[in-house]
Design goal:
It is a single chain. Helices cover 34% and strands 21% of the residues. The protein is an alpha/beta fold and 287 residues long. Helix 1 (18-29) links the parallel strand 1 (6-14) and strand 2. Helix 1 runs parallel beside helix 2 (48-58), helix 5 crosses helix 6 and helix 8 (209-219) packs parallel to helix 10. The radius of gyration is 19 Å and the shape is globular.
Length: 287
């Protein structure tokens, strides 16, 4: 790899998935690329067993920096720990459970970004461990729909359609296309755009930062693209899973609601940034 340029920085934030992170990193190191990349693993588990697994299994990896945090920084802040250490033209955000089993995934994503310079964020198809296609694409959220999704209201005729659209149940997951936003479980972000927005917005502790990242991309005249020509694999387990009735029992459901309110307070009067983009740049729409 001595003659290859450095093009990519990869970030993994671990929260109690150390064993899967080890497998994740091993898959990343098997990727065949025409360029160099480095990996950051930020552990926010605050757990000695998690620390020990990571230190033993990947602590001596040459192209990897392991950061052990003494407190749970949350999603946005933990990923932003790489600020000032980024290398290359792209940032790859990879959730701890994601496995890149196809050895050319990173190369394909970089090639796509370099051929489509207006794209700020791109994400591949995701397959859950169960074999199902993960719904990694969403519509920009409406708070009442988010509430309906977690209650019996989702089955009411009017809201049922709204929920189905919010979850992008109609989407052709075999087609490359512009989308509102991508779950940041596995996304490649243009470094210039990343720098322009300052990384993830740390006003959000655990959720919504990826939605705002996509919204900012559209707002600034860039595109967000779902790209199924390569696949990654996820365990399919979601921290925010559960109904609204678990608000007082599940801290992740509470955090999702709190972060959602913060997002709506900021974006409520701004409208849909993707629709605004389409009105201004009609020639770039292809979905």
């Amino acid at each position: 790899m001595t003659n290859k340029s450095h093009k990519l920085t990869i970030v993994i934030s671990n929260y109690y998935k150390a064993s899967r992170v080890v497998e994740n990193v091993r898959n990343l190191c098997l990727q065949k690329t025409s360029f160099k990349f480095n990996i950051f693993v930020i552990d926010v588990s605050c757990d000695e067993k998690q620390h020990a697994i990571l230190l033993k299994e990947i602590g001596n990896q040459i192209n990897l920096e392991l950061v052990i945090s003494e407190k749970n920084l949350g999603y946005a802040q933990s990923h932003n720990k790489i600020k000032g250490k980024e290398k290359g033209d792209y940032i790859l955000i990879v959730n701890p459970d994601i496995l890149l089993k196809e050895k050319d995934t990173i190369q394909k994503m970089v090639d796509f970004m370099e051929k489509n310079e207006n794209v700020a964020i791109v994400g591949p198809k995701q397959i859950n461990d169960t074999g199902e296609v993960a719904m990694s694409v969403r519509a920009f959220p409406k708070f009442y729909v988010q509430v309906a999704r977690r209650t019996f209201l989702r089955n009411l005729p009017f809201l049922k359609k709204k929920v189905a659209y919010d979850e992008m149940q109609h989407l052709d997951y075999d087609k490359t296309q512009d989308v509102d936003w991508l779950q940041s479980s596995c996304v490649m972000i243009c470094r210039k755009f990343w720098d322009d927005v300052g990384g993830f917005n740390e006003r959000y502790f655990l959720f919504m930062a990826d939605i705002e990242m996509s919204a900012r991309a559209w707002e600034m005249g860039h595109q967000v693209v779902y790209y199924p020509d390569t696949k990654v694999y996820a365990d399919g387990k979601r921290l925010s899973a559960g109904g609204i009735g678990q608000f007082f029992e599940n801290k992740f459901v509470r955090r999702h609601v709190i972060d959602s309110i913060k997002y709506r307070a900021k974006w409520i009067f701004k409208g849909n940034p993707r629709k605004k983009f389409y009105k201004k740049y009609k020639q770039w729409t292809h979905s």
